[in-house]
Amino acid sequence: MNSTAIDFVRILAHIETVVESKLLTENQKTSVLTEIGTSLPADFFCASCMHTRQIIEGLIKETTVAVKEPKKASKRTPKTKKSEHGEGELF
Predict the structure, then answer these.
(1) Residue of higher predicted confidence among 45 and 66
(2) Does residue 76 sit within a domain?
(3) For residue 21, is it within any domain?
(4) d(Cα 74, Cα 68) in Å, to the nearest integer?
């Protein structure tokens, strides 16, 4: 069965669903995205939509990496400025 760009747009919708899911853990999202990536049709079935396949494949890889990376809590500390007397001042 030959794939079309429309088939890949449907896959894109599924990728968005997985990424935005509040029911899945980060590890589960990674697993599902990886499996979506491995289930993409082979190149020779996508002759009319090779660019779309490459885009979707790239998005899956980028999204999988983004999901794997832990979200870092921002640690903001106020900057201090040394005064003439050597004491730190907040600004």
Answers:
(1) 45
(2) no
(3) yes
(4) 18
